[in-house]
Amino acid sequence: MKKLTVGVWLLAQAMLMSCSQISTDSAGVTATNEAGAETQGLGLKLELADNHYQNRAQSRSVLTITNNGPEALPAKGWKLYFNGGALKSADSTVATVQHFNGDLHYLAPGPEFKEIAPGASATVEVLGRAVGNVSNFPVGFYIVYDAEPGKGIPVSLAIEPGDHFNEATQQFAAKVYEANAAIQNLPATALTKVFPTPVSYQEKGEPFVLDAKVTVVADADFRREAEHLSEALATATGQKPAILGSATGKAIFLKKKPGMGAEEYTLSVNPERIEITASSPAGAFYGIQSLKTLLPATAYAGKAATVEVAGVEVKDAPRFGYRGFMMDMARNFQPKSEVLKVLDVMALYKMNKLHFHFSEDEGWRLEIRPLPELTSVGGTRAHTTDGSSIVPSYGSGPDAGSKAGTGFYSREDFIEILKYARDRHIEVIPEIESPGHARAAIKAMDARYTRLVAEGKKEEAERYLLRDLNDKSVYRSVQGWNDNIMDVSLPSTYNFLETVVDEIVAMYKEAQAPLNTIHFGGDEVPGGVWEKSPSVQRLISQNPAVKDTDDMWYYYFGKVNQMLQERGLYLSGWEEIGLRKVVENGKVNWVPNQQFASENFHVNVWKNSPGSGAEDLAYRMANAGYKVILTGVTHFYLDLAYNPTYSEPGLNWGGYVDIDKPFYFIPYDYLRNLKEDDRGNPLDRSIIKSKEALTEKGKANIVGIEAPLWSETNKTAEDFEYKMLPKLLGVAERAWAKDPDWAKEKDPAKSEKLYSQAWSGFINVVGKRELPRLDYYAGGYQYRIPTAGAKVVDGKVAANVQFPGFTIRYTTDGTEPTASSPAYSGPITATGAVKLRVFNAAGRGGHTITVQNQSTM
């Protein structure tokens, strides 16, 4: 699924720490100290010296260790831990780098390492793969002394990338400039004022003037939706409109009209009334969301005496019944407040499925009261030696107080989330990662076992074990773990799953929230698993249907499917739950598994990277009978970096994703719009020439679209929102809006012209209406502000911006542009370094780019 190559990328990209030589000197190095680093006196600086070392795609950096403390750093007896890839050590006599587990590694002094005196520094050369962006460096350094193995002390790291990325950044800025030049700046009067784009939209007549006297008149079935509307309008007018059962005169009416589709609505606005009609509460709710996007962005900035609502006639219904977003709060935790904000923005843009990824190798985030260790141990990351937590990951550091590494949702929190989602017609789909990606759960149940055995309760201790204690199997997952796979032969594994499922079902029942499916993961189980498990071998010898460890896969999902069916639920998972391993001519292939094709399995198919051989997998699975949610990495993985420049955070193992990728996705013919390889280069079309097309039968099995946001590089809510928005607006448009004309046009030239027009319209709506709204809506979102496009033209620096309505500001004196710097109005004649930065209407700026104008004009 999601993470196939993420682990490989993290291991390889973050840093191939390998030592070649070490020298010492007495020159101090300034580094930012964190709490704790000051105590032990160490600071680190990593300088990128060569990003194409030995003419290969590898880097050479200088790691400077500075001793700011009063005592010498000894020549031995310590380890420097960090998260990120360490794959080899060039000179083990000076230092060694070892892989601990997952993405955790450590550097230890070798026999020739010399102590570092107080005030002195040592420099260590380190090698690694070529650095792509700011997210590729190691993170989370801390030192552990052999004398106190259970205590980790944070060590600060300063990174100096040098000027290795300047040329590439300027080249990309020129590429962006050319792309932006094709975007027309459209007048506000030409923009569709309802978003996502409705099926039918017409502006007519005079506006409706909204003020504090307006009431909401709602049919009884729409009372909850009327409350939502009343609260939303209070933001604009300063007073919640009264909700009435009947009235005449000027008002907003929510009317039930039988015979309409399940999520269909109409919206009519004239000077005397606003009327929303629908046959269901969901339809009425989506009509309200369209009304909310009709309001100007300033309506959400504060109280206004009156607000004009444009006169429109809208008829609308969604293209797909499944319009999903996956929130990963397992790898790095996000607080409940951020989950509620995600639900708010999803609801505004009519998305209706929140895939709740609460369990992973690196964290279990949902309280299950019968199994408290799941959160006390599995929800805590820290450096310990007693099994009271799981190991630091993704830079969470040695202390349990890390907000990204430690945290969970209490039962009460989750019920509140479910109610909040329910009231916004969003179904929350919980994911229990299994049998792989389960280390947090496995270690939590190990801790439970240890506790109960010590209490003399061995039978109870074994009740929920997730591994065979005598298993000697050797494996390594793509994220680097060697102990993260549940043993699916154990009855205790199913005891565990049934307990968790029943607790989840009970929480949904208490919240009166819909629960139709539970997602059971099912991806990335590595070779070697279960081969030396006595329990597995015993099952193979006793069960004729299970011939080898490969068959354990089908055994497991058959039992899970049965468990869910007994509870009136269906099984969801990543694509692997519906695949079978076959060997043809000595080559391993994965094909749709006919055993489960008619079992109503819903599969998120993410593999479609060009050159992977799985470009058409979603269509093959749909054609075979599986219910498919299009989740392709190439267009919907929102955690991938926006572009290949150094300043853009995020991974790039699956390419780059900006707002255009989901926008130009063609659900029923996405092979047509695979344009780039995973390096962002133009695609060799021969790669997908013979791939399987979607059949009419298969088309009926495409249930919708989902965009995941994995959280390896999201330590804060701001990090999360930066990657989520504005990309999510492209997802919402493609999931809701009808098939656009450019996607149906067969003539390439005509299609390209239609696309260019549609793209300009969309990007103007986003820049002039939706992003200004998101500056204030639900407290405001820290969406990404684009970097400027820029190039030297006729000796002058020309610049433009992706979103019309945003402002470019610049400086020529070497300082960073601020909201008060000169606004760009035409090509800049200054020579030397010209710094450009884009600002939104609220005065917040994006990343600065620097263009070197060497012209002598």
TrEMBL record:
Residues 377-402 are annotated as: Disordered. Residues 1-23 form the signal peptide. Its EC number is 3.2.1.52. The lineage of its organism: Bacteria, Pseudomonadati, Bacteroidota, Cytophagia, Cytophagales. This is beta-N-acetylhexosaminidase. Keywords: Glycosidase, Hydrolase, Signal. SUPFAM superfamilies: (Trans)glycosidases, beta-N-acetylhexosaminidase-like domain, Carbohydrate-binding domain, E set domains. InterPro entries: Beta_hexosaminidase_sua/sub (IPR025705), CBM2/CBM3_carb-bd_dom_sf (IPR008965), CBM2_carb-bd_dom_sf (IPR012291), CHB/HEX_N_dom (IPR004866), CHB_C_dom (IPR004867), GH (IPR017853), Glyco_hydro_20_cat (IPR015883), Hex-like_dom2 (IPR029018). The keyword Lyase does not apply. Gene3D superfamilies: 2.60.40.290, Chitobiase/beta-hexosaminidase domain 2-like, Glycosidases, Immunoglobulins. It holds the Pfam family Glyco_hydro_20b. Belongs to the glycosyl hydrolase 20 family. Residues 40-192 form the Chitobiase/beta-hexosaminidases N-terminal domain. The keyword Iron-sulfur does not apply. PANTHER family: BETA-HEXOSAMINIDASE (PTHR22600), BETA-N-ACETYLHEXOSAMINIDASE (PTHR22600:SF57). It catalyses: Hydrolysis of terminal non-reducing N-acetyl-D-hexosamine residues in N-acetyl-beta-D-hexosaminides.
